[in-house]
Amino acid sequence: MSERTTHPQHRSTRTPGAAGPGTPLDLDIDVDFLRTTLMDLLRIPSPSGRTDAVMQHVGDRLNELGYSFDITRRGILRATLPGRTAGVRRAVIVHADTIGLMVKQVKANGRLEVVPVGSHSARFSEGAHVVVFTDDFDRVYTGTVLPLKSSGHTFGDEIDTQGVGWEIVEVRIDEPVTSAADVRALGIEVGDFVALDAAPQITRGGYVKSRHLDDKAGLAACLAALKALAESEEAVLQVGAQFLVTIGEEVGFGATHGLSPDLAELVAVDNAVVAEGQNSQEDMVSVGMLDMTGPFDYHLSRRLHALARDHDIPAVRDVYRHYRSDAAPALEAGIEARAALLGFGLESSHGHERTHLDGLVALARLLVVYLQSGLTFDDWDRADAGTLEDFPSDSVQPAPPEPLDRTVVADRADGQDGEPLSVDAEAAGRPAPAT
């Protein structure tokens, strides 16, 4: 399918009726822009630690949309989205880095031992086409990740019994090399980055198949949301916002710096795991309720789901076991803000990934609505602390106490039926203490 072909079923529609002051507008999402942006991002290799080129591309897109931004020393991008009030009170965070590989050893047979950059299994890299980047930018090589025993005509069933792991694979370089000396003559050395080819495809039905959809699909959805806001003459952001694009999420330190110190809330955008036992779906946006670091903010998470429901945006809630996002390093770094997670449904994450354009549109729509809304608690959240009298507690998150009297009346084996027993005393067959 042509990358610019428009499919009406993948385009959102604005909520009918005029919006009153402060009412978020459900803006149209330019799916052609989303699709083209996603394909462009996927074709730029950006394993964690080698992300300058993709950040240049993201910056170019933001320049075209008219947003002001800067770049930190390490390469994190910070864009400002002005709001009705002064200051930056919320952030949307997404990462541009991906999983990848690095040369561990130049082997005597002319092949490369590699280790993973980020957490991913060698199972899904076997057979992958790769690019090897040397320190000489004019010397870039292609290759393939293969198991040590890769010839079926030689090894037969041993191919299936050799196991799975990074110590059992190697990179075959597409050059006439048979020794370590041959490889080093190419300029390849220990510590060189090896990028897994994304090989992106979009089907006629709107499915997107590619490596590195985590998190370039999320990044494309964010940019599509920002485009919709930039082009609208009616949409108004109630509070100033920050758009943060990080470069180290896959290795655990994405949003450790770069955030405004005055944030009241942040939303991380990442993949939502589609697998057996998960609630996420490829054609919906997911609101994460908990990951391996713990629950996300009670109020912000439920508010995001309510915004989706109020604007007929297909959304589900989900919980993830083996997962963390940019929200975790931000909170670990000490930011005092509510944190939530929005995701696009992704099948086979960190493997042969797949998502759907409808899910990315749903994510972009929810971001558009959220960025126009006020803070979760508009008065309370404007300061990082306040008095107990002003704290929104029982009225928004009641927790009725357990009853003081846990006395029960039970049939007694000793014939004294009806004599009250305490819970503990009942287990021991003793009468309840007098009150």
List the helices and strands and how they pair.
Layout: H1 31-42, H2 52-65, E1 68-71, E2 77-81, E3 88-95, E4 100-106, E5 112-117, E6 129-133, E7 140-147, H3 152-155, H4 158-161, E8 169-173, H5 180-185, E9 193-196, E10 201-202, E11 207-209, H6 213-231, E12 240-246, E13 265-274, E14 285-291, E15 294-295, H7 298-310, E16 315-319, H8 327-332, E17 338-347, E18 354-356, H9 357-372, E19 408-409, E20 420-421, H10 423-428
Parallel strand pairs: 3-12, 3-13, 13-17, 14-16
Antiparallel strand pairs: 1-2, 2-12, 4-5, 4-9, 6-7, 6-9, 7-8, 10-11, 11-18, 14-15, 14-17, 19-20
Helix pairs in contact: 1-6, 6-9
Family: Belongs to the peptidase M42 family.
Keywords: Aminopeptidase, Hydrolase, Metal-binding, Protease
Organism: Kineococcus gynurae
Question: Which structural category fits the helices and strands?
Answer: alpha+beta
Spans where pLDDT lies below 50 across 5 or more residues? 1-21, 425-435
CATH superfamily of the largest domain: Zn peptidases
- The share of residues in helices is 10-25%
Q: If you average the pLDDT, what whole number results?
A: 90
Q: Any idea what the shape is?
A: globular
**Any guess at the CATH architecture of the largest domain?**
3-Layer(aba) Sandwich
Strand content: 15-25%
Biggest sheet, in brief?
Answer: 9 strands, mixed
Biased composition (Basic and acidic residues): 403-415
Protein name: Osmoprotectant NAGGN system M42 family peptidase
Family: Belongs to the peptidase M42 family.
Region (Disordered): 1-24, 388-435
Sum this structure up briefly.
By secondary structure, this protein is of the alpha+beta class.
